[in-house]
Every structure is written in structure tokens, then in C-alpha cells.
Amino acid sequence: MMETIYFGTYTKRQSQGIYRADFDTKDGSLSKLQLAAKETNPTYLAFSDSNCYSAGSCNGMGGMANFDSRFQLINHVVEEGPALCYVAVDKGRRLVYGANYHKGEVLIYKQNNQEQLTLANKIHHHGSGPHKNQASPHPHFADLTPDNYLVTCDLGTDSVTTYAVTDSGQAEKIANYQAAPGAGSRHLAFHPDGKTAYLVCELNASVEVLNYSGQGKFEKQQTISTLPADYKDFNACGAIRITKDGRFLYVSNRGHDSIAVFAILPDGRLENRQIISSAGQTPRDFCLSPNEDYLIAVHQDSDNAAVFRRDSKTGLLVEKSRDFTVPEAVCVLFNDWKEK
């Protein structure tokens, strides 16, 4: 079956914006790369039922870009400074969330009946951490918990903060979890049962396994490295993904340039099963195909997408290809609506 796969990129060298391609879920082949929309540094993408939202810039200002299902621009919501680094959709409240790493802010946007976005709220983070990259707050993630709260990860303060959010986008802080000092909390992924969360920490190359009891309450039960024990050079973790059956978890390593494969044990803890080369340089993001037979990793510095065949019983990966060119790709995902 042919599916459409989308790529967010930097546009510092040769990329022009958001790209799409065909992906064959039977043989794992990529083909027909096309420019979907011109946009400056659309480094993260998210889809609703009829819109694509991306990190974006306009007239030298940064923020959010809002496209319809034909990738026609509806509007930008921007202000002075860099664009967002993470985007997520809250379909129930018709909200869109964004994390601004450089400005230390979490932003909440409201969509009106004409599909336009407006800025509804801005949350300023405060604090710092012991690592040299933690001189100030750096929100890197803003998304929903299984019980429909807004949860954020701040790489600069090692914090995971949860907010209650109204339909209009007003937010009230209700809980905070602190990762290990200097860990650099980056992204959070929840197990399908909603009772365990996995926090990938960029700066110390680890995953913290957290029991989740609801309403933003996290309790750590394990920390596990994403790297081989003998690796001592630079690394920064990237993306984290969990299979639909809740049996396997994957993390990308930038520097070591690899994908770490973990089995999820019955109690939610992780057991390392494989660390395999990502087949490129700087794998900032990856995703699983809709049937989860394949993993597709994109590389910021080698401009390629690599495809791995995935064993559904063991979770192990085998490289299939690495020669599909995608310029400056840093985000990859599938979407099931058809462009109209």
C-alpha cells in the first residue's frame, strides 16, 4: 500500500520547506520526493483532520505556520525571535501547542471557524541547570497527557511541567517533575496503557522510565542509557517512539548516529536489545510506518532518509536502504488525510 510521508526541514542550505514522498508499506521503498510547501525552517510538523501546522517564519520573525489540506498557507502567527521547535494539536479544544526553545516559552494557539490561528496564551519558563547548555529555560516539547493535560519538557531546567488547560487556551500549572540534574529533558512518550511515560534526556543520553498516576504526577522507576557502555564522545538524544502494541521503544542518538532499541518489560521498565547505526549523520527524527513494519530515520547533516525493516516479534532493526535524498530533514511523519 502506498502512503504519503512528510518531512520537515531546516532551510539553511538547499531545502525550500516542507516535503512529501511516497512510501510503499509492502517493500519499504521511498519515491517521488516533492516540495509540498515553501516555508522557512519548518523544523517540526503536526496534522489535524484538515490542517498542517509547522514551525515557521515570516519577514524575519518566528512562530507558527498554518496550512490547509492542499498546503496553501492560511496564516502565520509570528513575533520577533526564532521559530518553534515542537508543535502539537489538541483536537478536542481546537488548540495548537508550540515550544520555543530559544525564548523559553510555551505557546498556545486557538483555531477559529475559518481555520485561522491566533495566539491565545504564552507561558514563560524560568530557571537553569548545571550543564553548559542550561543557562536558561529551553522548552522542547508541549503535548497532551493521556488524561488530556498539557505537559511540557524543558531541556534547560530538567523539568516536566503539567498544566490544566481551558478551551480558550488559559493554563494553570498543576504539577512538576524534575529529571536528573543536567539530564536535559527533551521529549516524552506515553505507553499505550497510559500508566508509564518515557522521558528521553538529550544531554546525558538516557531514558527515564516514569510511572504516571494522572494529573501530571510522575515517579521515576528506572534510568537507562541509550549508548554503548564504551562510547565516550559527544552525543545528543533526538526522538523517541513506542510501538502501538507497547512492546518496544526506539530512541535516536545524534553524535553516535544510531537508533537504540529497547524491549518494554511487563512492569514498564526497559531492556536494551540493539543499538544500530542510523545510516546517516545526525538523526534528529524518525518514525514508524503505519503498519510498523519499517522505521524511517532522517538525517540533518547527511541529507538522507534511511529505511529499516522491523521485526515485530523481537523489535530488532535491519537496514534496508539509505540512499533517498531529503535535504536538511529534521522531522518525519505520516498522515492519513489525502491532500485535496
From TrEMBL:
<dbReference type="InterPro" id="IPR050282">
    <property type="entry name" value="Cycloisomerase_2"/>
</dbReference>
<dbReference type="GO" id="GO:0005829">
    <property type="term" value="C:cytosol"/>
</dbReference>
<comment type="similarity">
    <text>Belongs to the cycloisomerase 2 family.</text>
</comment>
<dbReference type="GO" id="GO:0017057">
    <property type="term" value="F:6-phosphogluconolactonase activity"/>
</dbReference>
<dbReference type="Pfam" id="PF10282">
    <property type="entry name" value="Lactonase"/>
</dbReference>
<dbReference type="InterPro" id="IPR019405">
    <property type="entry name" value="Lactonase_7-beta_prop"/>
</dbReference>
<protein>
    <submittedName>
        <fullName>6-phosphogluconolactonase</fullName>
    </submittedName>
</protein>
<dbReference type="InterPro" id="IPR011048">
    <property type="entry name" value="Haem_d1_sf"/>
</dbReference>
<dbReference type="InterPro" id="IPR015943">
    <property type="entry name" value="WD40/YVTN_repeat-like_dom_sf"/>
</dbReference>
